[in-house]
Specification:
By secondary structure, this protein is of the alpha/beta class. It has 2 domains: about 1-50 and about 310-460, Aspartate Aminotransferase, domain 1, CATH 3.90.1150.10; about 60-310, Type I PLP-dependent aspartate aminotransferase-like (Major domain) (Aspartate Aminotransferase, domain 2, 3-Layer(aba) Sandwich), CATH 3.40.640. It is built from 16 helices and 14 strands. It has helices at about 20-30, 60-65, 75-90, 100-110, 125-130, 160-170, 195-205, 220-230, 235-245, 270-285, 295-310, 310-330, 350, 360-375, 385, 415-430; strands at about 45, 90-95, 115-120, 135-140, 175-180, 210-215, 250-255, 265-270, 345-350, 375, 380, 400-405, 435-440, 450-455. A 5-stranded mixed beta sheet has the order 2-8-7-6-5, with helices on both faces. A 3-stranded antiparallel beta sheet has the order 9-12-11. Strand 3 (about 115-120), helix 5 and strand 4 (about 135-140) form a beta-alpha-beta unit. Helix 3 (about 75-90) packs parallel to helix 11 (about 295-310). The longest helix has 20 residues, at about 310-330. The structure holds ligand F0G.
């Protein structure tokens, strides 16, 4: 890989607080060994998430000033609507406070109790809203997605056989829509090919079932298509991006990722009936259709972000920065999910900590230990995030037991990535000392956010 420097320069800086090991040992204990509960000022490099942690451009900051804060008929809404129409090619859009706001509205509009919603791997909030509406999620992703060492280029692809099986078994009338995510977060940021998208569309058409996209990281997906799919390398990202969207009836969007802002999201559709129903619910749960859950200035920042996100140089650097971190870790022998995906590097906790059973929460333990090691904050994406089956109450046991090092957009430099790679590699040398964890507090819904844990035995990994 040719070494590439950042395609931007720094105009404002945010000083970071350096911590001692002793402070971090105290902090992780106070946080119940859950990285979500660590105070941000105690973190050196924050790779918890790429959500809402983006650096906005000078043009986005300038746009905030012209936000029209009218309750209705806001100019900012019309700028936002125009950006979604131009870049996503969707005629109808409602703004929401973030992605899950859009998931809530879509689920309530389309799902009836007893329905089944097939998707290419679950996402936490998406499945939660489907279940709250009385639906049941069924995984139809290809088998390769569950194997961290499978090198297939499009591990986010839908297994068409599995999808057709769902249509036949439950009947298409009980499938309100198929939900397809680009890229697939829980699989490691893996992409879906255009070829697969077209085939999914054709199958949905054959059974008269709607197709909705979780477009949260669809720009990163477009980069992988440009890089890997035959015949796509000369097309601009903007064009590939729009083609991806052309196959679906609508999308939910967390603007906190691709759209390069700190808050916001939307639900967009081609279907005037879904749009009308969504607007009715929007005024109950989010706000008037011209602002949803957002300030006028937020909609301005999103409008600019939507146009910046499809810049070829920007997205190339973004994905290659993530891949560069993966390459440094691979060189140190650290087990990671391959190929490296679009938004982060995922450590394979099963191979990192072969001495722990899944019930001993290896990925949670690894994330906690990494924080103490280098002040690097990551996120568990394994059995804790996966939660319990709402019917049986048993833990889900996902095949993937991962720690996500998520890279915020335009925020960290290559030197920060070096520090991360060093911290993980050093910890890898002491991996056998990392103990398992157990729950001491387990919330009923989306437990990973606020659960608390304790180590199963004392360990130098959690000592000063
Ligand atoms: N869909 C995907 C694929 C996501 O990754 C997220 C959020 C959402 C929907 C929900 O959007 O946060 O704006 O309400 N993912 C974040 C993450 C939280 O860290 O992966 P939201």
């Amino acid at each position: 890989m040719v070494k590439r420097a950042e395609p931007y320069r720094i105009k404002a800086v945010e000083p970071l607080h350096m911590t001692t090991r002793k402070e971090r040992v105290e902090e992780i204990e106070a946080a119940g060994y859950n990285t979500f509960l660590i105070r941000s000022r105690m973190v050196y490099i924050d790779l918890l998430t790429d959500s809402g942690t983006n650096a906005m451009s000078d043009r986005q900051w300038a746009a905030l000033m012209v936000g029209d804060e009218a309750y209705s008929g806001s100019e900012s809404f019309f700028h936002f609507e125009k950006a979604v129409q131009d870049v996503y090619g969707m005629p109808y859009v409602v703004p929401t406070h973030q992605g899950r706001g859009a998931e809530h509205i879509l689920s309530q509009v389309l799902i009836k109790p007893g329905d089944v919603i097939p998707g290419n791997m679950y996402f936490t909030t998406t499945r939660e809203h489907q279940e709250l509406a009385g639906g049941q999620f069924v995984d139809i992703i290809c088998d390769a997605a569950h194997d961290p060492q499978d090198l297939s280029p499009f591990k986010g692809n839908v297994d068409l056989g599995k999808l057709e099986q769902v249509f036949k078994e439950v009947g298409p009338e009980h499938v309100p829509y198929v939900s397809i995510a680009l890229t697939v977060n829980m699989a490691g940021g893996q992409p879906v090919s255009l070829e697969n998208l077209r085939a999914v569309r054709a199958l949905c058409d054959r059974y008269h079932v709607r197709l909705y996209m979780d477009a949260t990281r669809a720009v990163e997906n477009a980069f992988f298509v440009q890089e890997r799919e035959p015949g796509q390398s000369d097309r601009p990202i903007r064009e590939i991006f729009k083609e991806q969207l052309s196959y679906v009836d609508g999308c939910t969007m967390s603007g906190k990722k691709d759209n390069l802002v700190n808050i916001g999201g939307f639900l967009a559709t081609r279907d005037p009936e879904v749009f009308e129903a969504a607007r009715e619910l929007l005024v109950v749960f989010e706000g008037f259709p011209h602002y949803g859950g957002l300030a006028g200035r937020d909609m301005e920042a999103i409008s600019v972000g939507i146009r910046e996100m499809v810049d070829d140089e920007y997205i190339k650097h973004r994905v290659l920065q993530v891949r560069g971190l993966g390459e440094r870790l691979q060189a140190a022998g650290v087990p990671i999910v391959l190929p490296v995906g679009g938004h982060g590097v995922f450590l394979d906790a099963r191979r990192f900590l072969p001495h722990l059973e899944q019930e001993q929460l290896p990925a949670q333990a690894l994330a906690a230990a990494l924080y103490v090691q280098g002040g690097v904050r990551a996120m568990e994406r394994g059995v804790v995030s996966s939660g319990r089956d709402p019917v049986t109450g048993e833990n889900h046991h996902p095949k993937l037991e991962l720690v996500r090092l998520t890279v915020p957009r335009r925020v960290y430099t290559e030197s920060h990535m070096d520090v991360v790679a060093e911290s993980v590699s050093e910890l890898y040398q002491h991996r056998s000392e990392i103990p398992g964890l157990r729950f001491v507090h387990e919330p009923k819904r989306l437990r990973f956010f606020t659960a608390r844990f304790e180590p199963l035995r004392p360990s130098p990994v959690f000592q000063a």
